[in-house]
Amino acid sequence: MMTYDTLHQRLRGPITKALKGELQVKNTLALPRLEKVVVNVGINHSKMEGKEMQEYIAESLKRITGQKPVFTRARKAISNFKVRSGMVVGAVVTLRGKHMEEFLDRLISYALPRVRDFRGLSAKLDGRGNYSIGINDHSIFPEVPPVDAKQIFGMQVTISTTAKDDKAAYALLRAIGVPFKPSKPEETGKGAKEEKAEKAAGSPDSSVSSGPSQSLANNSSKSDS
Predict the structure, then answer these.
(1) How far is CA 103 from CA 38, 61, 63, 169, 186, in A?
(2) What is the CATH number of domain 7-176?
(3) DSSP SS3 for 23
(4) With b meaning 16 or more CB within 10 Å and e meaning fewer, what string describes 192-210?
(5) How many other C-beta atoms are found inside a 10 Å radius of the C-beta of residue 191?
(6) pLDDT of res. 47
(7) Which residues lie below 8 Å from residue 15, measured CB to CB, with a gap of 6+?
(8) For the chain, which residues make up each domain, given as ranges?
(9) What gap in Å lies between CA 24 and CA 191, rounded to an integer?
(10) Which of 41, 153, 154 minimizes the C-alpha distance to 89?
């Protein structure tokens, strides 16, 4: 019977060995590591009115992350967005240590595969070794029971690493198992550019070929007259 290795075990075993070979780093302490995971939910009062919805968001985040969220409040009043000072505008959970590793393990192994028509995540990072994932439907997590359509809310998951650049952070996230979209080969990109160049080169020829026919037609009409 096969045993499932948790992310906590893999980070201290095969993932460390793979990163050493890929990044060519001998010192284990110099490898990029996971620092924290921030789960953020924005509360839109036009769609999420009432304390009941806020309590439901807090309870759902507590089930998903295993930690009680903290509500964030607006510092200034913005009349265009109908926001008053002190109004609740979001809920945030910051995960570290084993809670972070367990959440990422569930997110990658169970939640993301449940997304309808899932084709992978974008490989764009923020330039500082951090990566954000936008989730439109919180019910992809198996911890949440089936809900009504009015209760569905989205969230943003930000993964912070100790990597100094995106290359090291991308290697770490890929080793963890983040399902990135497959990168397109360079040949296909060159082929597309060549096709565009050929079309652009072909368009002047077609305009030139249509020019003499129009002039001949004009000359024949003048001779008939």
Answers:
(1) 11, 11, 11, 18, 35
(2) 3.30.1440.10
(3) helix
(4) eeeeeeeeeeeeeeeeeee
(5) 11
(6) 67
(7) 172, 175, 176
(8) 7-176, 184-225
(9) 33
(10) 41
Only one residue has tokens 């912070």, namely 160
Q: Does residue 187 have a pLDDT over 70?
A: no
Measured CA to CA in angstroms, residue 99 lies from 8, 61, 66, 102, 131 at distances of 10, 13, 7, 5, 18
Cα–Cα nearest to 109, from 196, 205, 10, 29: 10
- Interval 69-123: pLDDT, tens: 999 888 888 877 777 887 788 899 999 999 999 999 999 989 999 888 888 898 8
Q: Is 65 helix (H, G, I), strand (E, B) or coil?
A: helix
- Please count the residues of the chain: 225
Query: Is residue 131's pLDDT more than 90?
Result: yes
Average pLDDT of the chain, as a whole number:
80
35 closest CA partner among 122, 163, 195, 176: 163
